[in-house]
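ok here's Phosphoglucosamine mutase:
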Amino acid sequence: MTLIKSISGIRGTIGGHVGDNLTPIDAVKFAAAYGVWIKQQRDKDTYRVVVGRDARISGEMIQNLVMNTLVGLGIHVIDLGLSTTPTVEMAVPMEHADGGIILTASHNPKQWNALKLLNSKGEFLDADEGAKILEIAESDTIAFADVDSLGKITKNKAYFDLHIIEVLDLDLVNVPAIEDAKFKVVVDGVNSTGGIVIPLLLERLGVHVVKLYCEPNGEFPHNPEPLKEHLTDLSKKVVETGADFGIVVDPDVDRLAFIDENGEMFGEEYTLVACADYVLSRTPGNTVSNMSSTRALRDVTEKYGGSYEASAVGEVNVVSLMKKNKVVIGGEGNGGVIYPESHYGRDALVGIALFLSLLADKRISVSALRKTYPNYFMSKKKIELTPGLDVDGILKTIEKRYQNEQLTTIDGVKIDFLESWVHLRKSNTEPIVRIYTEAKSQQEADTLADRFIDEIGEIAKI
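and the structure:
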């Protein structure tokens, strides 16, 4: 498996050969490059970096390598241990740190891990900053500290509590109403850190929690991407226990999906739509999501008199456009809610609190809430990349074929038809081409995706 170096961080599978996988040597190499970059940002006497990890099996090994590499550069480390991506993002500015690293491969299976890199604001690095770190990693100019200048590691286990307190203090989180509603919720923590922090949050909100796969041992009980086909156990548990709904998060707790009281998917794309509906009803304004997200967010935004715009895929791209457009809420259709009143990062804790506030306000079931939104259906398919496949050339051919349609080419090729769309792009995190489509029925969305898979196959043979 080739090591993937992208805007989303340094990601690869554990084991294998140096340079081809995320080996200990690769972890040290890129951690050192990041540390050098941190020191280049400001000339000061001491530097501090926050480090945390999800519960995957390789996490402790990779974290120790990363932290001690930073120590070797003379950088002090605040060790959060088991944590979440949004928790580390919030800890960076709270600690007045110079940056942060989360050891997580997000939704990827257990053999994967990654270094996700943050700046001093607790936000992901942009493409130029990432490119600079890759340049440093390939140079021979990294100089480590002498024995009297080594950094120190300080453990801090308070940040789950601090994160929860920050969420509960948000103006739009209606704690009394949620407590009065006496919700019963099943939580699937996919045996990672969501199994720790999500029940803690819900209990503070007076929610009766039923735990499912909440032991943070890194043994994912199902594919950790929160898609319908992976959530049959959660669906059954919701129905069996008579719960109001179910919650599932990915291993690093920045993606969020809901199961309704009947065991049916609320729709991962509709996590952001529902949270935006609640926020916009109280603070009208603009929204942003990425190009692969549902049109329903646009519809809800326009209902409240705001404007919607789509960014290139990638959290840093979404955040950049959110800041430019001064939006009140944004995110990604994969269940990633970004609420600027909290911080500029996808945060399942914030999403849960806003969703519960919406339900407590409307006093309706989750299935009834879903029926209040425009009904779109999405197909998410992919093609494995083979060596020598000219993906850029294929996408250029598609672009030329559909030049008379509404095209967007800031990230792959997106074609907007009257009642449907297709988005074709190379993944930032896996060696695949993603084919996302949306239409007025599931059959139409699937048929449209299959049509473009066939077209790509035809072009690749030319």
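+1. The radius of gyration is 22 Å.
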